């Protein structure tokens, strides 16, 4: 009798796994094939000094272009996106249409926003709850990038007074300059490739590694590094004593759990 029960139980478990796998595969395929279309395509001739982006779930790309332009690709039944200029500020807002609890776990609640910028900005503020922020060849006097869950990736830009925050996700910069930087990631890697030399920098991570790669010799910098758990590796000869020159430019790094590497 026990043997028969075990056979029936095993057979039922196999059937459950097979049908569960098939259901997941079909649901995922339907989500991937969900209708995506251009839901916004606007150009602006107005004078624009500031850009403010506030999105719920989106991949936001900011890049240099010939004119101020905003495009968005997604499902118009899921998202409501607006874009307008007021007082020399371009405001882009994206929110989900349906705020009720949705039990469709395969719903593809995701949108892409692309903004082209032809000239320098005085202020750039981007916030998205879930998604990522990509930036290419942008100049701004003041820059704030915030993503709750997702990655921040900046290339070839000049960001003035720069702040970046990610609750869960990587923060990466490459060949990007700023006057001073404040970078925070609760869970995620922080990496600055070709980091600006002799520039004040404040980095804080709860769980995640920090790596700074300098391609030029530092002449006036002080390192202040504190970790609870993790190793520190300083590979710059001029920073072996954590200070070069007068040390006027403070590079402060705080990490609860994670390695710190200076190259």
From TrEMBL:
This is DUF4097 domain-containing protein. Residues 48-238 form the DUF4097 domain. Pfam families: DUF4097. InterPro entries: Toastrack_DUF4097 (IPR025164).
């Amino acid at each position: 009798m026990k043997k028969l029960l075990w056979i029936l139980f095993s057979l039922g478990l196999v059937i459950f796994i097979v049908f569960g796998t098939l259901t997941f595969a079909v649901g995922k395929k339907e989500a991937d094939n969900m209708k995506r279309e251009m839901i916004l395509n606007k150009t602006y001739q107005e004078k624009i000094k500031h850009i403010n982006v506030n999105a719920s779930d989106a991949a936001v790309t900011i890049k240099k272009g010939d004119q101020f332009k905003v495009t968005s690709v997604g499902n118009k039944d899921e998202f409501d996106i607006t874009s307008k200029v007021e007082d020399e500020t371009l405001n882009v807002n994206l929110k989900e249409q349906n705020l009720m609890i949705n039990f469709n776990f395969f719903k593809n609640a995701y949108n892409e926003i692309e903004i082209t910028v032809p000239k320098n900005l005085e202020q750039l503020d981007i916030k998205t709850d879930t998604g990522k922020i990509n930036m290419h060849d942008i100049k701004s006097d003041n820059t704030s990038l915030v993503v709750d869950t997702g990655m921040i990736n900046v290339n070839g830009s000049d960001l003035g007074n720069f702040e970046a925050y990610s609750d869960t996700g990587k923060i990466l910069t490459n060949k990007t300059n700023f006057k001073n930087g404040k970078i925070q990631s609760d869970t995620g890697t922080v990496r600055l490739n070709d980091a600006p030399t002799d520039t004040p920098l404040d980095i804080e991570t709860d769980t995640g590694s920090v790596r700074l790669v300098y391609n030029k010799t530092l002449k006036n910098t002080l390192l202040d590094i504190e970790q609870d758990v993790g190793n520190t590796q300083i590979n710059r000869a001029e920073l072996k004593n954590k200070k070069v020159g007068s040390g006027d430019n403070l590079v402060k790094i705080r990490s609860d759990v994670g390695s710190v590497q200076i190259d």
